[in-house]
Specification:
- The protein is of the alpha/beta class and 209 residues long.
- 31% of the residues lie in helices and 34% in strands.
- It has 6 helices and 13 strands.
- Helix 1 runs antiparallel to helix 2 and helix 2 packs across helix 3.
- The chain is globular and about 65 Å long.
- The model has no long low-confidence stretch (mean pLDDT 95).
- It binds uracil.
- Uracil binds next to helix 6.
């Protein structure tokens, strides 16, 4: 089963507390999602392999380490996942960025892909799929499957808020995928929203309602 990593870092917990607040406006919400994503990127990249290197300093030769040949890709699920992209790129600026757009079919309630543009060498990249809210898990599971169908082999899923149901669904359908979340809430309401959650992440990021 995939690993589930919850972030107990005080900075992340503090910032999550502010973005949950109904009185936090879109500008501050966006800035904080950006900052939390950067802090999470630090942990999500912890297992990147290092190679030995040597550099010439002003006073001699230093034996150093550099990140090995791993190629990374980040893939936000539209639209709310977009809010996490810049924060990730702050730490991994060379990562390629793909996009997946999904909507829920009102009849079948199944996620349907309406947009997909991915790096052409996706099968060689370690991918981090981004969606701030892991609620029912339907979009995340579908997004992971779309990536696998196109050849992706190594996928991590990163969100800000996860529900227990969403975590269980990813673990069941994609046990090879590690999950990274800042906070876990236990409940979903009848509309599939996380309770107490933070509301609609896309609306709060982009000021729509
Ligand atoms: N998407 C959101 O934006 N919020 C939720 O609570 C669930 C899904």
């Amino acid at each position: 089963m995939g690993k589930v990593m919850i972030f107990d870092h005080p900075l992340i917990q503090h910032k999550m507390s502010i973005i949950r607040d109904i009185n936090t406006g879109a500008k501050e919400f966006r800035e904080l999602v950006n900052e939390i994503s950067t802090l999470m990127a630090y942990e999500v990249t912890r297992d990147l392999p290092l190679e030995d290197a040597e550099v010439e300093t002003p006073v001699g030769k230093a034996k150093t380490k550099v990140i090995g040949g791993k190629k990374l890709g980040i893939v936000p699920i539209l639209r709310a996942g977009l809010g996490m992209v810049d924060g990730m790129l702050n730490l991994i600026p060379a990562a390629k960025v793909g996009h997946i757009g999904l909507y829920r079919d009102p009849e079948t309630l199944k996620p349907v892909e309406y947009y997909c543009k991915l790096p052409s060498d996706i099968e060689e990249r370690d991918l981090i799929l981004l969606d701030p809210m892991l609620a029912t898990g339907g979009s995340a599971v579908a997004g992971i499957q779309f990536l696998k169908d196109r050849g992706a082999k190594n996928i991590k899923f990163m969100c800000l808020l996860a529900s227990r149901v969403g975590i269980d669904l990813i673990n069941k359908d994609h046990p090879d995928v590690d999950i990274y979340a800042a906070v876990v809430d236990e409940k979903l309401n009848d509309h599939g929203y996380i309770v107490p959650g933070l509301g609609d992440a896309g609306d709060r990021l982009f000021g729509t309602k």
